[in-house]
Design goal:
This protein is of the alpha+beta class. It is built from seven helices and 28 strands. The chain has helices spanning 4-14, 150-158, 197-207, 222-231, 252-258, 293-311, 360-365; strands spanning 20-24, 32-33, 37-38, 48-49, 53-56, 66-73, 87-91, 103-106, 110-113, 116-119, 129-130, 141-142, 146-147, 163-167, 171-176, 181-182, 193-194, 211-214, 237-241, 262-266, 270-271, 277-281, 284-289, 322-325, 337-345, 348-351, 368-372, 384-389. A six-stranded mixed β-sheet has the order 8-5-7-6-10-9, with no helix packed on it. It has a six-stranded mixed β-sheet with strand order 18-15-19-23-22-20, sandwiched between helices. Strands 21, 24, 25, 26, 27 and 28 form a six-stranded mixed β-sheet that branches. A hairpin with a 2-residue loop joins strand 25 and strand 26. The longest helix has 19 residues, at 293-311. It starts with a helix and ends with a strand.
């Protein structure tokens, strides 16, 4: 068996970049920016009012001062003239500041009688002006690579950028294996269970910016597995779930080898998830995950997520870890790195008591994987431990 870090090194060596494409901004959310985006304009492009009120010459704004209103400036409709001493322009939030004005007196501090305004006794101290370029200047950029969040899309739109260059979505073929499986919504036989792994992994891969496809279940025959692998041709990554161990019905390694797979490793010193296999099959990277539901999902977070990030140009790095303090004591760990379903709160982190790799209900309640190194000694409450967040 190899360590988790060694397995990741092998996986990164198998990873190929998927290339780039240019897409409309409206389709870019969740994609990985592949080329820097540069603004061609200042934002705001003019000095603008931050409040509703009256634009005046700032040095003249004192309690009791009076001004003659000579016009109005609204968003999209600036006042075309220049303010002179003793004059004011009615102005609204976001409107261009009239030439000559250096302050906006908020309307709450003003009394108006016809075209004359009088300033109150207790004036707000701010000038309430958003300076031109106060948000960003022309030439400011968004640096790639970067996973584009909704807030990033808003910023790019304000830069007047209509199309962006992003990494292509890696196509991932998901193949569940086993006679015991049926799809959700079907009626299982007395010895069958529902295929849950592919659906969880499909959701995870989609959230990472990949393009996952669930292929038909491969039954426990070489011909069935061959047929489904035929359907996976053209994918960037083939992920099989189950059938990667050494039992009589675990055919993935054998069938893949007959099809020319160059295997990089088999078995990783971790729990859950030991029977992990990886290699290249034709033009695709191939990853064989264990069939236990929690094992498959843990491997998704520990291995699949870093692989997708590497494919989309986000660098080769393991899943990011953070540190929290234990809220409960823990016994010593065994020889394999242990990824324990855990709950992180403001008080700290605690592993769930039940850690069987078939218990999806426990995984659903977890928001973190508490990471125990091999042979980690017993821990007491208050000890720092590493964890991987399960929340995006």
């Amino acid at each position: 068996m190899i360590s988790v870090s060694q397995a990741l090194e092998h996986l990164f060596s198998l990873t190929s970049p998927v290339g780039t494409e240019t897409v409309p901004l409206i389709e870019a959310a969740g994609r990985v920016l592949a080329e820097d985006a540069v603004s061609q304009r200042d934002q705001p492009p003019f000095a603008a009012s931050a409040m509703d009120g009256y634009a005046v010459i700032g040095d003249e704004a004192s309690p009791g001062a009076q001004f003659t209103v000579i016009g109005e400036s609204a968003a999209g409709h600036r006042f075309p003239g220049t303010i002179s001493p003793g004059q004011a322009v009615r102005i609204f939030t976001g409107a261009p500041l009239p030439q000559g004005a250096t302050r906006v007196v908020i309307q709450e501090d003003v009394t108006r009688d016809g075209e004359v305004i009088t300033l109150g006794k207790d004036l707000d101290a701010g000038d309430h002006i958003r300076p031109a370029g106060g948000d960003f200047r022309a030439g400011a950029g968004m640096t790639a690579p970067r996973r584009l969040a909704p807030e990033d899309i808003a910023l790019l739109a304000s830069m007047n950028i209509a199309r962006v260059t992003v990494a292509k979505r890696p196509t991932v073929a998901l193949i569940s294996t086993g006679d015991e499986l049926v799809m959700p919504g079907e009626t299982p036989g007395p010895d069958q269970i529902i295929a849950s792994n592919t659906f969880g992994l499909h959701a995870l891969l989609g959230s990472l910016g990949a393009d996952p496809r669930i292929l038909p279940i491969a039954r426990d025959t070489r011909s069935s597995l061959d047929l489904v692998l035929d359907l996976a041709e053209g994918s960037d990554l083939i992920v099989t779930i189950g059938g990667a161990s050494v039992g009589d019905h675990d055919l993935v390694a054998s069938v893949a080898a007959d099809r020319g797979m160059e295997r990089a490793f088999y078995k990783v010193a971790m729990r859950p998830g030991k029977p992990l296999m990886a290699g290249r099959l034709g033009g695709a990277m191939m990853l064989g995950l264990p069939g236990n539901p929690v094992s498959a999902m843990v491997c998704g977070h520990v291995f699949l997520a870093p692989v997708i990030r590497a494919m989309t140009g986000q660098g080769q790095a393991p899943a990011p870890r953070k540190t929290a303090l234990l809220t409960e004591a823990m016994s010593a760990n065994g020889p394999r790195e242990h990824y324990m379903r855990a709950r992180l709160t403001t008080e700290g982190i605690a592993a769930f008591e039940r850690q069987d790799s078939s218990l999806l209900s426990v995984l659903s309640q977890a928001n973190a994987l508490l990471v125990r190194p091999p042979h980690d000694p017993a821990r007491v409450a208050g000890d720092p431990v590493d964890y991987i967040s399960l929340q995006s």
